[in-house]
Design goal:
This protein has about 120 residues and is α/β, with parallel strands linked by helices. The chain has two helices and eight strands. The chain has two domains: about 55 residues, 2,3-Dihydroxybiphenyl 1,2-Dioxygenase, domain 1, CATH 3.10.180; about 60 residues, Roll (2,3-Dihydroxybiphenyl 1,2-Dioxygenase, domain 1), CATH 3.10.180. The strands form two sheets. Strands 1-4-3-2 form a four-stranded mixed beta sheet, with helices on one face. Strands 5-8-7-6 form a four-stranded mixed beta sheet, with helices on one face.
Length: about 120
């Protein structure tokens, strides 16, 4: 197999260190590498984000604007995660949804990037 998966996804931020720390403090990621104002944050399952310095004005994006629209965050306990986000004052943009047994909740990070909690009864094939 030539292509083996995604190594990381990049997010451009006006304040990369602050946003990286939000992922650490809020979602339990850890900063595992940094250089020249760029921060890699790693989730407990090994997934990584690279947070880089942004340039220019942010684009107004909605749920279905073309391009990458959200990051899905897996959780072990959906209800506990929802309560944790609320207690931390995280901006919640939807009520919890149940779609074919999958539980979802959309929220944003400090920069307004869209994320959602995901809890599936069984992994996708």
């Amino acid at each position: 197999m030539l292509y083996t998966g995604l190594e990381h996804t990049a997010i451009a931020s006006p304040h990369p260190q602050r946003l990286a720390q939000w992922y650490v403090d809020t979602l339990g990621f850890r900063i595992n590498h940094e250089y020249s104002g760029n921060y890699f944050v790693k989730a407990p399952n090994g997934a990584m984000l690279e947070i880089i310095p942004s340039e220019g004005e942010p684009l107004l994006a909605q749920m279905k604007t073309p391009g990458i629209r959200h990051l899905a965050v897996m959780v072990a306990d959906f209800d506990q995660a929802v309560e944790d986000l609320k207690q931390r004052g995280v901006k919640i943009v939807s009520e919890p949804l149940n779609l074919s047994g999958n539980r979802l909740l959309f929220f944003t990070d400090l920069d307004g990037n869209l994320l959602h909690l995901i809890s599936r009864p069984s992994p996708l094939p």
